[in-house]
Amino acid sequence: MTVTDGGGLSRRGLLGLVGTGVGAGVLGLGVGIGTDRAVQAHAGGSSGASASYPFFGGHQSGIVTAAQDRLHFASFDVADGVTRTELVELLKDWSYAASRLTAGLDVSPTGATGGSLLAPPDDTGEATGLPAAGLTVTIGFGPTLFTTADGTDRFGLASKRPPALVDLPHFSGDQLVAAASGGDLCVQACSDDPQVAVHAIRNLSRIAFGRASLRWSQLGFGRTSSTTRGQTTPRNLFGFKDGTANVKAEDVAAVDDGVWATASDGAAWMDGGSYLVARKIRMTIETWDHASLSEQQTVVGRDKGEGAPLSGGTEFTAPDFAVAASTGGGPAIAPDSHVALAHPRNNDGATLLRRGYNFVDGNDELGRLNAGLFFIAFNRDPRRQYVPIQQALSGNDRMNEYVKHVGSAIYAVPPGASRDGWVGETLFG
Q: Which is higher by pLDDT, 16 or 205?
């Protein structure tokens, strides 16, 4: 039996000591944990080192939160033999630790240096002295948590799998790597300090020891979307402004319609949650860099400087797909351009809230830059939003000559945790 504190915290899980046989030193640490309840993060702030976002609330942070500049995304597989009770303990432990990390604290009161000299520290310590830096920790559940590929219902959750949590279809041109796709659980850690984001994933991975293991992870820099009107539009590694038409947090009606799930969608426990789609998109940088400016702009459907649609205007002018090009006789915005195929007007009004990041993972075996876009999007129902949009893009997008999708995953992101609660309590409660 695992001893817990008043908020349900598993000392075993927090210390990452499953199966290690550490004795008296662990008990000494556990007493300190039991006297400290989940911490309330400070609200307010939109970016920078001083920003802090609350972990508890009706929705998880890290969705409509002002997009931070750095990402560490991690996918986990639950270990063989782990019980439903142990899985719940893990989610409680993660939630407790995340509530402290997002407030700029160590994962426990004893932290990196305050515990027994005879036991590993609770916290790895590389963020000691650093502020929260806008850290958000967002937790999601993959399809295989509900039913494995061979149909096994490990945790009694098969009947609770939301209808919208579909297995993503194989899209035309996909070159997916199994080791960079899927996963039972995910954690998205975003911050304006890369060390703070890495620290969060490192410590949550340690806490998961013996119950879940890292399947794959991705570091990201330079957000490729804006989620609030106060943010400028960033640029992707192709040099173009990215996410001009993204859903913004201030667009309350659009967020309610296209981001937040409701009980009426078919899974009452997902009320206030959302669905996260992650796609790792490798850009063929060297090929793109030798394309003419005219070709690049035609592929995207916008000019590279201002970011305005090729039909005219400024960055935020709505594209006019009927405007003819000044030369050549065709439309100014090519029908197979990225803008044309992705625009809500051409997808029955479907929108996505994007929170993607640039990535550079060194060079490949041929000396080419292994770089691109780690695409993240939140939507209320991937069946009517992400999937049809991506089907249109994968089949016809002129940009496909310069990109290939190598990683793919989808997760149900439950609503936020109640005060002193834990992410997932609506599913397991």
A: 205
Nearest to 246 by CA among 396, 347, 136, 378: 378
| Spatial CA neighbour of 403 closest among 69, 173, 146, 104 | 173
pLDDT at 27: 27
Say which residue the tokens 């293991």 belong to. Answer: 213
DSSP type of residue 196: H
pLDDT at residue 45 tops 60: no
Tokens at 2, concatenated: 């695992």
pTM for this prediction: 0.90
Q: Which residues contact 189 (CB under 8 A, 6 or more apart)?
A: 71, 72, 73, 74, 135, 136, 137, 138, 197, 198, 200, 201, 204
Give the contacts of 158 (CB within 8 A, at least 6 positions apart). 146, 147
Percent of the chain clearing pLDDT 90 (strictly above): 86
pLDDT of residue 31: 28
Give the integer Cα–Cα distance in Å for 228 and 335. Answer: 29
Q: Backbone phi, then psi, for 70, in 5-degree steps?
A: -130, 150
Q: Which of 63, 62, 6 is nearest to 30 (CA)?
A: 6
Which pLDDT belongs to residue 329? 75
Question: How many alpha carbons fall within 13 Å on the CB side of residue 119?
Answer: 24
Which stretches within 102-237 are classed as H helix? 143-146, 194-207
Cα-only R_g, the chain:
22
